Amino acid sequence: MNLFYFIPKNLLLHEVIHLFATLPFLFIVWKKTKSIKLIILTIFITIIIDIDHILDYFLYYGFSLDFIKFLKADYFSQSGHAYVLFHGWEWLALLVIINMKSMVNIKKKWKTFWFILLFAYTPHLILDSLNVGSFLFYSILYRLFHSFTYLV
Question: Where are the bilayer-spanning segments (predicted)?
């Protein structure tokens, strides 16, 4: 059951909601680092994660890009598949492991690329899971097992 049915399927509006969901994380990054660069990096990562939608678009429409159709994002429901290879709990687990291995100095963790990537990726994946109504759906292994069927 999708509890967040009000989140639009339009990709542009969806990205705006991702930015709003990231605001508390941006506030924390700012309080810890006072770095505009890291704020911009967090925003960039939050949005660029969805670049993987282009694969789903091309698999459905072919290799002619129509930006309006891309933003409409109906290719998931139309094709019945969702590959979104950058969306996966497995990536989050890997980021946690990388961060644990690279955290020599706990105070400097806030200024590492890997920590900012983890900090931007986490709310993105949670929001998307709430949006589709399934946390399991964003497991790459789960989607692979179900032939990447959209919302099995």
Answer: 12-31, 38-60, 80-100, 112-141
